[in-house]
Amino acid sequence: MTTLNAILMEVGKDPAVYKLSTAIDKQLEEMASVLGGNFISSRLFEVGEGLSLHIFINDMAIPLQLTANRRFPEPDQDQIIFGNALFLIMDDLKGDEEGALDIPDQYCEVFISKLKESFALCNGDEKPNLDEEIFVENPGTNEERRFRWEEVQAPGEEKELKFIGQGYVRIVDDGTCDILEIRGRYFKQKYLKESNKNLQ
Fold first, then answer.
1. Is 145 helix (H, G, I), strand (E, B) or coil?
2. Which of 16, 99, 150, 187 could form a disulfide with 24 if both were Cys (CB 3.0 to 4.6 A apart)?
């Protein structure tokens, strides 16, 4: 088997089966492509035998101002998924090393039906809450700092800039390394005063 079943929830469309490569490096590339960049995941619920359904979304969806897709089920209906989402079965112990597992064909329609029923469609013009724009680095340590990503002008001509990394998200190598380049757009961390306790 060279592909496995995942479920893709694209903006404005019904969830559908999406084929991913079983080779983990290629699988990660395909996920980054469909999600539009680097991604984060969250475990939704256990499906049995040490396996769980996970949701994957673009980790810069809010700074990139991706379109509102769907709302999480109650009691988290105030939380919105921005941009596309992928749903994958992962092994709770070995998922990070082995990647996603196949969702058998007979279960795909069950999951798709439940996702349509549980994740309400957005109008598409919803905006994130202000506290969703706030990120935390080094949480729980003395170096904990809160920031939001602010879009900025390119710090020079792109052909003259140096970058760390390849792919969808690159760090501008200017000695400070606090600016990200994402598909021709640039974002810089803007640190917040300590009095702001909201965090993502």
1. strand
2. 99
Cβ contact 32:43 at 8 Å = no
Contacts (Cβ under 8 Å, ≥6 apart) of 162: 172, 173, 174
For the chain, which residues make up each domain, given as ranges? Answer: 3-118, 130-191
For 185, the 3-state DSSP assignment is strand
Type of residue found at 168 = Y
| 181 sits in which H/E element | strand 179-182
Residue 112 DSSP code: H
Query: Residues 120-156: pLDDT tens digits?
Result: 999 989 998 878 888 888 888 888 888 889 999 988 8
Q: What is the CA radius of gyration of the chain?
A: 18
